[in-house]
From TrEMBL, chain A:
GO molecular function: ATP binding; ATP hydrolysis activity
Record has Nucleotide-binding as a keyword: yes
Domain ABC transporter: 13-249
Pfam families: ABC_tran
PANTHER family: PROTEIN TRIGALACTOSYLDIACYLGLYCEROL 3, CHLOROPLASTIC
Entry keywords, A to Z: ATP-binding, Nucleotide-binding, Transport
Species of provenance: Magnetovibrio blakemorei
Identification of the protein by name: ABC transporter ATP-binding protein
Automatic annotation (TrEMBL), chain B:
General function of this protein: Could be part of an ABC transporter complex.
Membrane topology: Multi-pass membrane protein
InterPro entries: ABC_MlaE_roteobac, Permease_MalE
Subcellular locations according to the entry: Cell inner membrane
First and last residue of the signal peptide: none
Organism name: Magnetovibrio blakemorei
Spans traversing the lipid bilayer: 68-91, 178-199, 219-238, 250-269
Alphabetical keyword list: Cell inner membrane, Cell membrane, Membrane, Transmembrane, Transmembrane helix
Annotated protein name in UniProt: ABC transporter
Length: 278, 271
């Protein structure tokens, strides 16, 4: 939960009138979002809604066509390179596939930001890496290569790398993608734990309703480059807009597809599917 | 109708030429930017507390240079022996096979050693560089570096560029020595000329200019291999298929660039 002692926590990310075009195609159409300190903001939307592009803008990886993005009070696209470099030390990112460097061990991956940005000795860095691995329940895995880890472990190791510099803002790109429900739920718990224990502001981009409802303090719903909704989970449930309710119901239906229906959709033939050995 | 279709063919032809020229200019521009950015990080990086890590340079030198010694050594020896065989065969027509050393020494030092080394390094390391960076790009590892405040050019490109710039001339020098030694062994077997006589003649005919000609070319090949490999890796689009295409493109471009540069270098140097 957002810090209860501060009724008006400061805004750490301020997005104004963000517009993005890919050629003639409009991806984001005047997006305005504020993310306040210590909250978990979930950016939701279907495929093609512009949420991944939006996240790339927030991470200062891609320049928008127009609009401003202020992170910790600094306009990221007006910052000189040195200042942007300093700002990036305060951000952590966990990418969809983990993006661990395959040529390095898990421990080396986690120590890399320390190695590049600090003058700590190797032993201190190793201790810090082990501590972060313990936070994500991967203690003892530091000498393994990323190829030796499962999908869920890779994501947790990526979280450990993202928090090694104790960032103020943590971004997650589709944390549940490719994970089974149990592992996905464990990752959601980890996100909540990071916010509670380390007081980070967390911004999660996902299309998983269940995960979003579990972790979000507030949700932003993007649809075809426009913001449909910004508010709490309860406000989202109670929202009178038919478009939002359709979106929620459609998600629920998708979540409820049983194994037979899934097989039928795959094969396109119900009888044939039912006759197949299981 | 026929005239219209002729116009259309001409239009398409010139349109294609125009696009290819623009694309080639764009590519040259990218190479220029990459060199400028690499120099920037090499010079400015330490002032920003972001130096190019020597460890990374040595690691690339191992990969590009030391691990290629075996195959380049074998190829250079084979080329040296082949030059001796062909030289003796041709010169025998004029009864001048004793002069084979002149041809072998010039060819090996000025042309074949840099060329074969460049081509082998391009096939081995240029393609590996493209594949590695391409895979890193599609796995978002390059994005991860950037959001961690680690510039990918400083972290990945500069070490490869420096390693290639150092190791291709070093390997070329090794190729020269091994190629000449293999030629000397064949000439010894075929004509009974001692190794000492072979190398005495070699030293007599070669000048420092010949050596710098070969090594200078090799340094340019080294830069070309790293730049082409890196750029193709950075420009990968799509998934595994994109990486495959970039790797193939990198090898073809590297070899073409090496051969054309070699020809231009020879032309300018002998004008």
């Amino acid at each position: 939960m957002t810090d209860q002692t501060d009724p008006n926590p400061p805004t750490v990310i301020e997005v104004r009138d963000l517009v993005t075009h890919y050629g003639t195609r409009q991806i984001l159409n005047g997006v305005d979002v504020d993310i306040v300190e210590g909250e978990i903001m979930v950016i939701m939307g279907g495929s093609g809604s512009g949420k991944s592009t939006f996240l790339r803008h927030l991470m200062a990886l891609q320049r928008p066509t127009s609009g401003t993005i202020k992170i910790l009070g600094q306009d990221v696209w007006r910052l000189p390179q040195k200042k942007l470099f300093e700002l990036r030390k305060k951000l952590g990112v966990t990418f969809q596939g983990g993006a661990l460097f395959s040529s390095m061990t898990v421990g080396e991956n986690i120590m890399l930001p320390l190695y590049e940005h600090t003058k700590l000795d190797r032993m201190t860095m190793e201790i810090m890496a082990r501590m972060k691995l313990e936070v994500v329940d991967l203690a003892g895995f530091e000498d393994l290569m990323p190829s030796e880890l499962s999908g869920g472990m890779i994501k947790r190791a990526a979280v450990a790398r993202a928090v090694i510099m104790d960032p103020r803002i943590l971004f997650f790109d589709e944390p549940s993608a490719g994970l089974d429900p149990v592992v996905s739920s464990q990752l959601d718990d980890l996100i909540l734990r990071l916010r509670d224990a380390m007081g980070m502001t967390i911004c999660v981009v996902t299309h998983e309703l269940e995960s979003a409802f579990k972790i979000a303090d507030r949700i932003t719903v993007l649809d075809r480059g426009n913001i449909l909704f910004v508010g709490t989970v309860q406000e989202l449930h109670d929202h009178p807009s038919e478009r939002i309710q359709n979106l929620l119901n459609r998600r629920s239906e998708e979540a409820e597809i049983d194994a037979d229906e899934y097989l039928r959709r795959l094969t396109g033939d119900k009888e044939e599917a039912e006759g197949m050995p299981r | 109708m026929a005239e219209g279709s002729n116009q259309s063919v001409a239009y398409r032809f010139f349109d294609k030429i125009g696009r290819m020229s623009t694309s080639a200019l764009e590519e040259m521009g990218r190479h220029g930017v990459m060199i400028a950015e690499s120099l920037y990080w090499l010079i400015i990086g330490p002032r920003m507390n972001q130096p190019v890590r020597l460890g990374a340079v040595f690691s690339e030198m191992m990969e590009i240079g030391v691990r290629a010694i075996g195959i380049i050594g074998i190829m250079a020896a084979a080329i040296g022996a082949m030059l001796a065989i062909q030289g003796i065969y041709s010169l025998k027509i004029f009864g001048a096979e004793g002069h084979v050393v002149v041809g072998v020494a010039f060819s090996m030092v000025r042309e074949f050693a840099p060329l074969i080394t460049g081509i082998l390094v391009a096939g081995r390391s240029g393609s590996a560089l493209s594949a590695r960076l391409g895979t890193m790009k599609i796995n978002q590892e390059l994005d991860a570096l950037e959001v961690m405040g680690i510039n990918p050019v400083r972290f990945l490109v500069v070490p490869s560029l420096l390693a290639s710039l150092i190791m291709v001339p070093v390997l070329t020098f090794m190729s020269m020595v091994l190629g000449l030694y293999a030629a000397a062994l064949y000439v010894n077997a075929a004509l009974g000329m001692s190794l000492a006589a072979f190398f005495d003649q070699t030293v007599d005919v070669l000048s420092v200019d010949d050596l710098t000609h070969g090594l200078g070319k090799a340094a340019i090949f080294g830069i070309l291999i790293a730049l082409i490999g890196v750029l193709n890796g950075f420009l990968v689009k799509g998934g595994a298929e994109g990486v495959g295409k970039a790797t193939t493109r990198s090898v073809v471009q590297c070899i073409s660039a090496i051969v054309v540069t070699d020809m231009l270098f020879a032309l300018v140097a002998t004008f």
